[in-house]
Every structure is written in structure tokens, then in C-alpha cells.
Amino acid sequence: MAVLMNLNNNGQAITLSKTLADKGAVDGPSLAKQIAKEKREYTFAGTFPTGTHAMWLNYWLAASGISPIKDVKVITVPPPQMVANMRVGNMDGYCVGEPWNARAIMDGVGVTTITTQDIWRDHPEKTLGTTADFVKKNPNTCRAVIMAVLEAGRWIDASLANKLKMADTIAEKSYVNTGVDAINQRILGRYTNGMGKTWDDPNHMKFFNDGAVNFPYLSDGMWFLTQHKRWGLLKEHPDYLAVATQINQIELYKQAASQLRISVPKDPLRSSKLMDGQIWDGKEPKKYADGFTIKA
Known about the structure:
Elements: E1 2-6, E2 12-17, H1 18-22, H2 28-37, E3 43-46, H3 52-63, E4 73-76, H4 82-87, E5 93-97, H5 100-106, E6 110-115, E7 127-130, H6 132-137, H7 139-158, H8 160-170, E8 190-192, E9 198-200, H9 218-230, H10 240-247, H11 250-259, E10 272-273, E11 279-280, H12 285-290
Parallel strand pairs: 3-4, 3-5
Antiparallel strand pairs: 1-7, 2-5, 2-6, 8-9, 10-11
């Protein structure tokens, strides 16, 4: 595979069932207490075992002392089926993109316990990906597509009106197929958690942010590899930097961005502080991956 660029930062969330919330499990620590008090099988869902949502879910659970391997069961459920499965009691919580967290609140079946930007502010989320073979055969096409998506992201982030127009478009039956009222608030950073709290989040989903969103940092790709190793999805440490360098098409991205006069960072590694105080900068990935107390 090849990653051509990031599409967005932030904007996902973890939802807990209304049943759990009514018992007092409304955040990580209170969920840990509930699991310790009421012994049963607790089921959580992500959208794919190696995907971003599973990694956010695992990280959040572990930060509260809950092993996603030993203490709960994590299953795979497609995003549009999350709310329906929670409604019939098939899961206790899930991590997914919007609008399925907002939808759970609107339908009265779940509450938002944390947003993913509160796990890692300005984290990478979706990417524009192709096969590596496609990049080799079609570099000009790849540059053109990167430029088109950069222009689209810049348009979305340019104004409130553009964001609302985008929400109207993707709510249609041919795309997300839900009411626009489930999309247009969180896309503007207007949050409610279903438990009486409302807030405006400056770190909501962004698609451009002067180009800061879109650069395919090597350290971002390496972070996911460290988590795959942490949870046993990788049996041995890979050459983290070599894998990320092979996959993330930084030179191609720079060429496309320069055509649009969009600045790019000088360093392909960036430093980030996650919710538990851990600093990730891509410089010692093996030590970082092995340094967690809760792991496979």
C-alpha cells in the first residue's frame, strides 16, 4: 500500500451504552470500577481490528487500567450498524467516526465518553491510499488527485457555510444516509455528551487547517505500527522508519503541495502528547512500543 496524504484530523469518539451510563460508568475510571464490580462479559466494537478506531479504543481502555484483551471483548462492526447493535444490547461501547456517536445520543441509546481528539489532539485519521504499484505506474495521476483533495479540504475548512453544505451533501442517501442534524453540529465542533454537558471544541474534525492536516508524517504511520506490536498484531518489531518511509509518499505529496503553494513541515517526524501523558515523537519506536504496562 501507499499513503498519499491525510484526509482529516480529529472527529471520532467513544460511545458507552446508556445502560452503562445509568449505572455510573461514564468515563474510563468509572467504567473500570463497573467492570470490577459487576462480573460479566463486556463487549466493545471497533470498525476493523487494525484500524484507527480499534487503536483509539484500546489506548483509552488501557489508559484506565482495562485490558482490551483480558478484561473485555472487542468485536468488529461496520459503522452504520453500531447504533442498531447498541440498541439491542449487543455491545457496551464502541469507537467510530461521526455521525454514529451523535446518532446514539439522538436515539437515546448511548453517551459520548471521550472524543478521539482528547486521546490525541490533531491525530491522523483517514488517509488517501492506493496500491504501491499504482503510484509507480501513475505518479502524475497521484499528484493530481492529491491536489484535488487538498483543494476540497481547503474549501471545506474555509467557511461555516461550506461545512454546512458539505454536511447536507454527505447526509444524502447515496452517502451516509442519515439526518443532516446528526452531522452538522459536530462537524462545526458543537458537542453534547448525552449527559447534560455541551461544549464548543476548537479541536474538532479538520480537513485542511492551512495544510497542517494533510502532510503524511512518518511518525504517524510508525505510531500505528507501535500499537500493532503492543497488541500482538505484529509478532516482531518491524523496521518502523523503513516501513513508514516506504508507504508514506512524502516526496509526491510535497510536489503536489508546492503546486498549490501549500507549505509543508521540514521534519517528517512530529511530537505529540497523548491522554496519559506519554510523548510520541517517532524517535525510539521499539522502546515506546515495549514501554506500556498493559499490552498483549
